Description:
Layout: E1 3-7, H1 12-17, E2 23-26, H2 37-43, E3 50-53, H3 62-68, E4 71-74, H4 82-85, H5 100-122, E5 127-129, E6 132-134, E7 141-146, H6 154-167, E8 171-175, H7 182-195, E9 200-203, H8 207-215, E10 220-224, H9 229-239, E11 243-245, H10 254-263, E12 268-270, H11 281-294, E13 301-302, H12 305-308, H13 315-328, E14 333-336, H14 346-363, E15 410-414, E16 417-421, E17 426-429, H15 432-441, H16 448-467
Parallel strand pairs: 1-2, 1-3, 3-4, 7-8, 7-14, 8-9, 9-10, 10-11, 11-12, 13-14
Antiparallel strand pairs: 5-6, 15-16, 16-17
Amino acid sequence: MKVLLVTGRLASEQVRRSACGADVLVLDVDVAAFITPEMLCRAGPQGYDLILIPGAITADFRGAEMALGTRIRLGPKHAVDLISLLPRLDEVELSTTVPACVLLEAKRRQEAIIQLERQEAQARGQLTIKGVKIGGSSRMKVLAEVVDATRLRDEDLVERIRYFEEQGADLIDLGASLDATPASVKRALKKAREVTALPISIDAVRPELICAGIEAGADMILSLNGENLPLVGSRVAEAGIPAVVIPGPGSVTLEENLNKAKDYAIQIIADPVLDPPLMGLARSMIRYISLREADPDIPLFFGVGNVTELLDGDSQGANLLLSVLAMEVGASLLFTPEYSAKAKGSIHELAVASRMMVLAKGRQTPPKDLGLDLLILKEKRRIPEEVPPRELVEASADHKFEADPAGSFRIFLSEGRIVAGNGRITVAGTSARKVLNTLIDRGLIGRLDHAGYLGRELERAEIALRLGRSYIQDEPLWPIEKG
C-alpha cells in the first residue's frame, strides 16, 4: 500500500522521522490542524492508495477525496503515534471523523477485553461462589468491603454497594461493626441481597454474628480462627459456603487453624495476612510463598487495603504493584475497603490491575502494552515539544483586575458536577466547556479577562472532578511544594 502523510511546516520533521517508509507532503501552513481540502487539492498528489491527514483536522475532506480519486482518512493527532499506526494499517478501519490514534486505542482495548473474556470462560476455579470462579487459573477477583455495614442506614448501604459494583467489584463484603448484633447483620444482608446479585460475605469473628450471617444467606464468611472454629465450624461446613481462615488468636498459627478447618470439611480460603508497610510487608510475602508451595490447591486471600490505607501515596501505582505481587504468590482474592479519601478508586484500580495480570501472564510479558493500563497522571509516551519562534513576548503579571459589571461567579463541585452560580443563576455540568459556553451564550460574562479566569477555574474544577480530588476556587489543586 502506497501511503502519503500530509502535514504542516512545524510538524514536518517529526512526521518524517515517524513515516516508516511512507511519503510526506508538507503544505504551505505552519499548524497541520489548519490544513484545508482546498490546500490538498491544489497540491494534487497522485498515485496513492491512502492519504493520511492530521487527526486534529475537523474539516470535511469528502470533496477532496472525490477530486483526487484517493481515500483520505484521519491519521493520529500527534505525529509520534504514526510509528504505532503505520505498521497496523491493515488491522484498523480508518475514519473520516475519528482520529486514528483513538481508533487504535479502542481496538487494542477491545482485543484485550475479548481475550480476557475467552480466558475467564476457559479458566477453572478452585471453588465457585454464586457463579464467580475463585482461584485456579481464573482471574484474581476483587472483594470490596463496606466498612461498618451494620451501622449504615439502608440508603447509605445501598449507595455504597452500587458504587462498588459500578467500579468493578466481583464480590461484596459487609463489615460488622464492633457493636453489631445478629439482627443488624441480618438486616444488612437482607438489604444487600435486594440491590446486588454479586456474592456477599459477612466480615466478623464473633460466633453469633457468623451464625446470623449464615442464617441470612451469606455466600462467604470472613473470618475463622482458632477461637471461633470450634463454635461455628460445623455450621459453616453444613451451610456449604467458603470461609476465610486467619491466624490467631495470639500465637496460634495459620497452619493450625487450616488443619482444624479441614477437619470440619470447610471450603477454605487462606489468609496469611499481608502486613502494613515497614511493619513486616516483605516478610509477609514469604508467608504467602511458603503456603502456596506447601498447599498449591488452596485459594489465597490478599488484603491489599492493609498497605494502601497505610501509605501516603497515590493508590494507582500501589494497587498495580500489589496486584503484581499477588499474582506472583498465586493469590485469588484482592481485598480492600476503599475507606480513606486517598484510597478512593481502589476498587476500579484493582479491577483493572487484575485483568492486566491475566493478559500479561497469557502473553508471558511484563504488564505493559496490554490495551489496559492505570496511567492516570503520567503518560506512556511524551509528545515532542514544539520549538518556539525566536521572538517572544514574555508574559507579564502587571494586568490590573477590574470587576466584571456582569457579576462574579462562585464555582464548586457537587454531586458529580461542576457548579457555577452568581446569586441570580446557577449553571451545572460535567465539563468546563459546557458550563463556560452556557455562561457566554446567556450573556453572563462582560469582560475578556473574566472569561479567561472562569475558563481556568472551570477547567481546574473539571480536573478535580475527574481525579476525585477536592476543589476550592482560587486554590491550587496540588500543594506547590512536595517534601
